Fold this protein.
Amino acid sequence: MSLYALARTALFKLDAEQAHELTIETFRRAPKLATAAFAGNAVDDPVDLLGIRFANRVGLAAGLDKNAECLDAWSRLGFGFVEIGTVTPRAQPGNPKPRMFRLPRHEALINRLGFNNKGADYVLARIRESSYRGVLGVNLGKNFDTPNERAADDYVAGLRKLYSVASYVTINVSSPNTKGLRDLQGQAALRTLLAAITMERARLADAHGKRVPLLLKIAPDLSDVQIAEAAEVARASGIDGMIATNTTIARPGLEREPLASETGGLSGAPLRRMSTEVLRKLRARVGKDFPLIGVGGITSAEAATERVDAGADLVQVYTGFIYRGPPLVRECALALKRKAASKLPGAGGSL
């Protein structure tokens, strides 16, 4: 049995959120526990995208390290990039517990955490204290008590606070766990929101002497019309790329699963097909040269290559990482490196 399998057996005896908090606290205090013994050597497969050089094509998705507390550990586990958050301007506790549930038979999770995080000031301090020098994405959201009419204020505040330390910034309007948040994916609301954010990015780019790419993360539950509208608005607004997808409120294949009745976003293997199809439709809408990151249900190297076939330039993992551990990162990164080599002799460029 692998080291991670042993650790997972112990962690899975705890409540899902307790296990998550214990893992974060352990890696925060002792990042050197994240070693090659868990992950194997990192895959060297540099990719140029968004004006950024990624060490390889596999990243850690937002949600696992909300407060940027384990950056020094993730850098040891083979990730080509790391996305932290979701971060809101002010600290907030999130939704009442229990709010996170494992579905081991399905390699899935249901969560209704609700952007629980320690706020932008805390996250900024943690990033500055870290020795991490890899690609860092910062995922931004709004506080739960900020009305949608003022949502832009929160996203602009988060962007202003964390701009200097971010390699790229993700605008999260797709979590199902903050009331009304997904309404911001509507065409008119999204256009207004992104206009305010891109205007602030232009100001910050002048002030800091660097232009940080902006990405938009969408839900897997959008209709074909909504996907097309989000793609059109993102491109017209000057957004640099998109991430597909967040968690789903649907319960595909979980008809006999008792926990399927829990409210919240479903992630993991059951999301794979939905997320892949949204990505495929999104790629058809945005064209071949617009950067896309695929996430949702990637629990194997096969799932990662499938996502690239559907149009992803990079992929991210979260729930698959919970179930499979660091070996999943290496497996996916190697598979994508080999796939790129088969298309472009002398791997190292973008897909």
